[in-house]
Amino acid sequence: MAETIANGRADQCANNIDGPTNPMVTPILTDLYQFTMAYAYWKAGKHNERAVFDLYFRRNPFGGEYTIFAGLEECIKFIANFKFTEDEIAFIRSSLPPTCEDGFFEYLRELDCSDIEIYAVTEGSVVFPKVPLMRIEGPIAVVQLLETPFVNLINYASLVTTNAARHRFVAGRSKILLEFGLRRAQGPDGGISASKYCYMGGFDATSNVAAGKLFGIPLRGTHSHAFVSSFLSPDEIIEKSLQHRDGSSVCEDFVSLVQTWLNKLKWSHLLGGIFSETNQSELAAFTSYALAFPGSFLALVDTYDVMRSGIPNFCAVALALNDLGYKSVGIRLDSGDLAYQSCEARKFFRAIEKEFGLPGFGKMNITASNDLNEETLDALNKQGHEVDAFGIGTHLVTCYAQAALGVVFKLVEINNQPRIKLSEDVSKVSIPCKKRCYRLYGKEGYALVDIMTGENEPQPKVGERILCRHPFSESKRAYVVPQHVEELLKCFWPGNSDKTREDLPPLKEIRERCIEQLDKMRPDHMRRLNPTPYKVSVSAKLYDFIHFLWLNEAPVGELQ
């Protein structure tokens, strides 16, 4: 089956763009009604009519006032390789009523995205409700077939990237953030996607080895409680020798060296009374792990008792490694009062640095995990803590606080005729016609407002006053004199047009853009509690046209 799919799509590599990361993203990864509509368009002779659709969302997630756009690269990879295989066409035929004509399946057989044009915001950008993230132009039947996969590829990607960015904002720039969510993610694709987009949103590394290979994301990970509890005593360690880091000598009995240091700590006047006898099976596990990874020793210290066993045992091993020229990485805390334990651990490390004259030992890295989320990070900040790195999983990758972003895909123009979708809920009324979108910046360099204009309206100019209007509220309007104007929608797939296609930047570049974009937002838009809504507007001309079309399309009631 995989070979058939590969052969069926081989001729789509002319653009030198690889297929989607997930091989399940094919033209049949869509809702059945896309095919029933496509057949109805074809049957009516409308399938080649030129349509314009906007992909956007209506509300920022997680109670915030910003979103990060992600998933564009996967959409472009999808259309670059869009081609039905014979197996897929046969399945579509079997899924539709037998009255469907053969000509429709011949039409599908020849279908590709060569006549599609895609204009989009650059991936990794900060975006806001109502403003199109993507504008898709092309034959209506083909564009309709792209709806479900595009919404699917953008929805979770943007949601989890935003979630990662929010965690980064709360943790602060100086902390290391590690994504540990693979085991709790919604299936393999959820795990792979989460690792990619959390890195994009500002995380530093992942535990997901497959994501590291696919995307070049730095990997982090040491051992679990199972490794610690699998040892019974130091007597289990058979190979006890460890070569000095510079290769100059060999310590024949590293286990005894560790025990010597543990005794020194026990009788230290600065550390006296904190612990007496530590758990020897834990000590064996730490020693064994250090023998395996002397240059990157990091221990999980809460299997038995953090302060009475885990920290002293870790320090004994770290000090023994130090004698041989190795510098240990630090500890991980995975339960209990993380603020208190991190502070006590830091005191212990500083006491050792002072007593034994070991510069830098007091700055040993402390990593915390244990079902962390935005709220716990915020609480730790308020309590005061000594954590250097956070390992975050479940709440991050599952987007526990909000299940979906609510991306929509709406027709705004067909055959050069603007279309509008009306609703009693004003938030669901679409903004018609093909549009251009701009971000206007103020004197301090912060973004002030996003404005949508008709395609043929002149671009806002620096230093020239422009009236920005709320799309649906007559009284909400303001003049803006921009100091910088950024056009948001760029051509990422020109189709048969002669427009230049924007390159797809590498993941690291998108990550840097995301961080840079967040720096351009006013702090009051970013705060967790009662953030200031960012203004999204339309030009005066587009405002008038929206309301003209609204009145024209809405049926007039009659009172009896």
* Strand content range: 15-25%
Uncertain parts: 1-14
Q: Helix coverage percent of residues?
A: 25-40%
SS-based class = alpha/beta
- General form: elongated
- Main sheet: which strands, in order across? 15-14-1-5-3-21
Distance between the termini: 64 Å
Radius of gyration, rounded?
29 Å
How many beta strands in the DSSP annotation? Answer: 22
Mean pLDDT over the full residue set: 95
What is the tally of helical segments? 18
Note the topology:
Blueprint: H1 2-8, H2 32-44, E1 50-57, E2 67-68, H3 72-80, H4 86-95, H5 102-110, E3 117-120, E4 126-127, E5 134-139, H6 140-171, E6 176-179, H7 187-200, E7 205-206, H8 209-215, H9 225-229, E8 242-243, E9 250-251, H10 254-266, H11 280-292, E10 298-300, H12 306-323, E11 330-333, H13 338-356, E12 365-368, H14 374-383, E13 389-392, H15 394-397, E14 407-414, E15 417-418, E16 435-441, E17 447-454, E18 466-469, E19 477-480, E20 484-487, E21 490-493, H16 507-519, H17 523-526, E22 535-539, H18 540-553
Parallel strand pairs: 6-7, 6-13, 10-11, 11-12, 12-13, 17-22
Antiparallel strand pairs: 1-5, 1-14, 2-4, 3-5, 3-21, 8-9, 14-15, 16-17, 16-20, 18-19, 18-22
In words, what does this structure look like?
This protein has helices at residues 2-8, 32-44, 72-80, 86-95, 102-110, 140-171, 187-200, 209-215, 225-229, 254-266, 280-292, 306-323, 338-356, 374-383, 394-397, 507-519, 523-526, 540-553; strands spanning 50-57, 67-68, 117-120, 126-127, 134-139, 176-179, 205-206, 242-243, 250-251, 298-300, 330-333, 365-368, 389-392, 407-414, 417-418, 435-441, 447-454, 466-469, 477-480, 484-487, 490-493, 535-539. It has 560 residues and is an alpha/beta fold. The strands form five sheets. It has a six-stranded antiparallel beta sheet. α2 (32-44) runs antiparallel to α6 (140-171), α10 (254-266) crosses α12 (306-323) and α12 packs parallel to α13 (338-356). The protein is elongated and about 90 Å long. The model is unreliable at 1-14 (pLDDT under 50). Keywords: Glycosyltransferase, Transferase. This is Nicotinate phosphoribosyltransferase 2 isoform X2. It comes from Nicotiana tabacum (Common tobacco).
